[in-house]
Each structure stands twice: as structure tokens, then as C-alpha cells.
């Protein structure tokens, strides 16, 4: 089953989910850097046709916020917590929690919001820790709507493996190069072992980006 990029989130959200709640969380990730994850996640979110929050897990780069800010589309900052919960915490060098909120969400269009991370909140010697707890994602599902999560490539940062089990669906992004296939299948196996509901593969950077849902990934893995 294939669909154009505009239908990626709809197809992923339609797959059976291990979680409850009116909303859906869909994580986009690749095995290697440069395979088009950010472009795919952003394009899918823009074309979702439903209220969508685009969460950028590459907290240092703020790729999506920078993209929209450069185009004059980034709205005022709003608190990005859900039900009082966050998926990260900022700690000092001696591991004391920083109470100031660093993550904000910004309206881009009437149906799309994007997150931004304020790195200035991180003190010298401090760090950002991503929580393995599912409270934030459960709260987002309870609020309804669609959440598209853009994760760094697994070769650069394994955070997707930490959060995979809390997602309703995980979509692998693969460049059309033949050499990407083995790495993608290894990434799929690692994500599945981490508890991910891997529902499909997006072939990005092709003449027409497409997604193969469920049946394709089962056949490819076999």
C-alpha cells in the first residue's frame, strides 16, 4: 500500500496502536544522518489535514523552528508541557534539576505548531536528559490531534530507541540509495526490539516521496 507524502501521517495514524487516547504520536527516524527525516516529517506535518504538533528532538539545532522563523511564520512562544509533564529535564553539572521551562511551541498555521528549545536555559557544564517515562506522550494523546516527532538519526543519537515504545507508530525514512536498505533493516530490528510499532518506510529524496505501510515492512523484513 503506497500513498503520497501528504498521506503519510494519516496512514501511520490508521495503523493499530498499542496505546489508548484520542490523539496519535508518530515518530520519524532514519538509520543514518542526511536521509531526509526532517524534510519528510515537516512535509508530512504540513499536509496532515488535522491539528498537528511537530516536535523536534534535535534540541540543539531547532531545525524546524529555524525554518519557519526564516520565513516569518513562527508565532509567539507558548508552554510546550502537556498535562504539566515534559519529556526532558535540564540538569546542572552536579545533577540538580533546572526548574525553568526550556521547550516552547509556536503556531505556524491554524493547524500546525512546532517546538523550539531554548539552549540558554542549560547552565555551563549542564546537560539535557530525555526521559524514558511515557507521561508526556500519554498526556498529548489525551489532548487529541496528531503529534509528529522528528528524531535524530540512530547513528548520531539513540534517543529514538528510548522513546519508541511510547509512540503509536514509528516510520523509518530511507534515501533511495541501495546501500541504505541494510542499515534501514538493522534500524527497524533495533526499534522493534526497543518496543516500537514500526508501521512503514518512507523513501525520501526521490522524485516522488512515497510511504509503504505495514505490508511492505513485513515483506522487506522477511
Descriptive overview:
The protein is an alpha/beta fold. The chain has a single domain, classed as 3-Layer(aba) Sandwich (Rossmann fold), CATH 3.40.50. Helix content is 27%, strand content 27%. It has helices at residues 8-14, 37-46, 63-70, 135-143, 159-163, 180-193, 215-221; strands spanning 2-4, 24-29, 52-56, 77-79, 88-91, 103-109, 112-117, 127-130, 146-150, 169-174, 198-203, 210-213. The longest helix has 14 residues, at 180-193. 42% of the residues are buried. Mean pLDDT is 88; it is low at 213-222.
Write the topology of this structure.
Elements: E1 2-4, H1 8-14, E2 24-29, H2 37-46, E3 52-56, H3 63-70, E4 77-79, E5 88-91, E6 103-109, E7 112-117, E8 127-130, H4 135-143, E9 146-150, H5 159-163, E10 169-174, H6 180-193, E11 198-203, E12 210-213, H7 215-221
Provide the β-strand percentage band. Answer: 25-35%
Any idea what the CATH superfamily is called?
Answer: P-loop containing nucleotide triphosphate hydrolases
What is the distance, rounded to the nearest whole angstrom, between the alpha carbons of the first and last residues? 17 Å
| Integer-rounded radius of gyration | 17 Å
Q: Give the second-level CATH assignment, the architecture.
A: 3-Layer(aba) Sandwich
Helix content range: 25-40%
Outline of this structure?
The chain has 222 residues and is an alpha/beta fold.
Amino acid at each position: 500500500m503506497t500513498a503520497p507524502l501528504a498521506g503519510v501521517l494519516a496512514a501511520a495514524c490508521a495503523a493499530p496502536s498499542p496505546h489508548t487516547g484520542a490523539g496519535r504520536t508518530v515518530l520519524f527516524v532514519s538509520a543514518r544522518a542526511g536521509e531526509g527525516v526532517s524534510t519528510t516529517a515537516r512535509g508530512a506535518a504540513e499536509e496532515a489535514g488535522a491539528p498537528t504538533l511537530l516536535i523536534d528532538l534535535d534540541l540543539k539545532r531547532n531545525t524546524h523552528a529555524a525554518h519557519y522563523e526564516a520565513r516569518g511564520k513562527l508565532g509567539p512562544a507558548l508552554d510546550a508541557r502537556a498535562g504539566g509533564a515534559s519529556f526532558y529535564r535540564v540538569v546542572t553539572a552536579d545533577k540538580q534539576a533546572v526548574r525553568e521551562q526550556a521547550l516552547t511551541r509556536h503556531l505556524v498555521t491554524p493547524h500546525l505548531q512546532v517546538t523550539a528549545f531554548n539552549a540558554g536555559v542549560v547552565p555551563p557544564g549542564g546537560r539535557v536528559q530525555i526521559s524514558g517515562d511515557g507521561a508526556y506522550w500519554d498526556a498529548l494523546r489525551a489532548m487529541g490531534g496528531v503529534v509528529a516527532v522528528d528524531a535524530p538519526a540512530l547513528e548520531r543519537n539513540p534517543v529514538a530507541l528510548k522513546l519508541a515504545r511510547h509512540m503509536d507508530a514509528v516510520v523509518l525514512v530511507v534515501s533511495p540509495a541501495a546501500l541504505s536498505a541494510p542499515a534501514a533493516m538493522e534500524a527497524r530490528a533495533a526499534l522493534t526490539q526497543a518496543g516500537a510499532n514500526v508501521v512503514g518506510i518512507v523513501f525520501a529524496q526521490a522524485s516522488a516521496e512515497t510511504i509503504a505501510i505495514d505490508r511492505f515492512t513485513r515483506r522487506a523484513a522477511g
